[in-house]
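Page 47, continued from p. 46.
Same chain as before, 126 aa.
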Amino acid sequence: MAAPAWRIRNALREYAFAFPGAREDTPWGESVAKVGKKIFAFFTPDASRAQRLTVKLPMSRDAALGVPGSEPTGYGLGRSGWVTIPLDRGVPPIEVLREWLEESYRAVAPKKLAAQLDARLDVRSR
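Result:
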């Protein structure tokens, strides 16, 4: 049985906020993950609403749009590679969602912080 959507959301938030320089902000009532002043992920703010993840995917956009119910993000963000993915049906494995979070982080993070992430991941793979 698949994990409840809010548990997936919480696991993804924990993963995102562990990236170098990542922090939470709550503009517009949304929970977002930022690095510096740039947003790299939007999360549903609480467990009482339909859970979704919004990320910037310059390389994996088409794959993410293949997830049932996913769509280009509104407000013109979809033209820049942002995709909103529901976490309550047909959700890909958590590993894929983590890869997409990482891709989104790398799309906006300063090179210095992305290099810190590379070093951290290299240590883990040994």
